[in-house]
Amino acid sequence: xxxxxxxxxxxxxxxVLAVTSAFTTVNSTTKKALAVTPYEKQTIGGENLCVPRLExxxxxxxxxxxxxxxxxxxxxxxxxxxxxxxxxxxxxP
Length: 93
Prior knowledge:
Keywords: Signal
Number of strands: 4
Signal peptide: 1-28
Strand order of the largest sheet: 2-1-3-4
Protein name: Transmembrane protein
Distance between the termini: 53 Å
InterPro entries: DUF6520
């Protein structure tokens, strides 16, 4: 009985653990990528504002800037820096 458990059940448990660990790693990486909140620079009444936008952007520089509506020619999107200014450029994921 003990050898059956070792030969059949134990390898199955190891495979299940490996697959579960792989999916957990993928999910945590995806959550980190989505944690960036994009802001659009706007000047309203002579005051510079950072207006949050619902876009999917990344900090990874791939050469293509993240824009409003993901349409080139639209205003670029930024992440806020430590001084609450929109200065950190964002890129398309």
